[in-house]
Amino acid sequence: MGFSCSQHQCWDCQQKTSDAGGMIFRCRWCERGFCEDCLDWDKTELIGDHLKEYELLEFPSVNQAFYICCPSCKDHHDSDPAARLFCANQAQEIDKQYEIMLAEQNTKIAIVVTDLETPNSTPDTQSLTDASTIESSAVATPYCIMDEGGASSKKKRKAAPASFKVEALPLDDPSLAAAAFDSDSYASSTKKRKTVSGKDRSKPTSRSKILSSPLAGR
After folding, report:
1. Is residue 158 classed as helix, strand or coil in its secondary structure?
2. Is beta strand 24-27 parallel, antiparallel or unpaired with respect to 65-69?
3. Which of 157, 161, 179 is nearest to 170 (CA)?
4. Most CB contacts within 10 A, which of 18, 91, 125, 170?
5. Are 8 and 32 in contact (CB under 8 A)?
6. Stronger pLDDT, 77 or 175, i.e. the higher one
7. Alpha carbons 79 and 56: distance in angstroms, whole number
8. What is the rounded distance in angstroms from the CA atom of residue 181 to the CA atom of residue 83?
């Protein structure tokens, strides 16, 4: 069996909020609620469309409720001073907590307004990027850091090989002449190969013929 709040219907005629014109007058101190037709207006104390204790609990006001001190509670307070004093003390304590809540909210609002009105501080001139930004006009130009010896931190390029001179080898020595001829001149001095029917028919000059040439005997 589900719970049904008695303040969502009239205590006398049992009409729901939607059947009672969309409004139930709810008592602050008891569980009763009344529709407009059943409420005794002469013995009712009107409070308002919201209660401070509900705001402390962050419960917003609703359009279907208006809070009162119902005729039964009012009669009870008149006949029982202790009950009237108890409710008065409760209302006073709620008022104190409500004022503290308002003070805290006003303090937070004042801090936000102060932050908005305070001009921005001077921006840091040192940018985290080398590119052009709002705070810095630096240009992202590549650069290198020099070490203590004045050399760049980047890898040095390898020195180009020194030029060399080709010295004429004495041809009196047959072994030197054959070595020189065999290293560089052999490939260029050989005859071009001629192909017949897709087969290589040319034969390179043998080393024995080179060594026996008149040039090697000098």
Report:
1. coil
2. parallel
3. 179
4. 91
5. no
6. 77
7. 31
8. 130
- Please say if the pLDDT value at position 40 is more than 70: yes
Cα separation, 128 vs 149, whole angstroms:
28
User: What is the spatial distance between Cα 53 and Cα 50, in angstroms, rounded to a whole number?
Assistant: 9
DSSP SS3 for 57? coil
Q: Going by C-beta distance under 8 Å and a sequence separation of 6 or more, which residues neighbour residue 130?
A: 138, 139, 140, 141
> Residue 72 in contact with residue 32, Cβ under 8 Å?
yes
Helices 71-79, 81-117: inter-axial angle, 10-degree rounding: 120
Q: How far apart are CA 165 and CA 184, in angstroms?
A: 15
Percent of the chain at pLDDT exceeding 90: 40
Single-letter amino acid code for the residue at 20: A
From residue 1, give the alpha-carbon distance in Å to each of 4, 24, 31, 49, 103.
9, 24, 19, 31, 43
CB 68 within 8 A of CB 28: yes
25, β-bridge pairs: 34, 66
CA-based Rg of the chain, rounded to a whole angstrom?
Answer: 54
Q: Residue type at 159?
A: A
Average pLDDT over residues 50-67: 91
Two tokens, residue 205: 């000059």
Q: Helix or strand or coil: residue 26? A: strand
In terms of Cβ atoms closer than 10 Å to its own Cβ (0-12, 13-18, 19+), residue 41 is: exposed
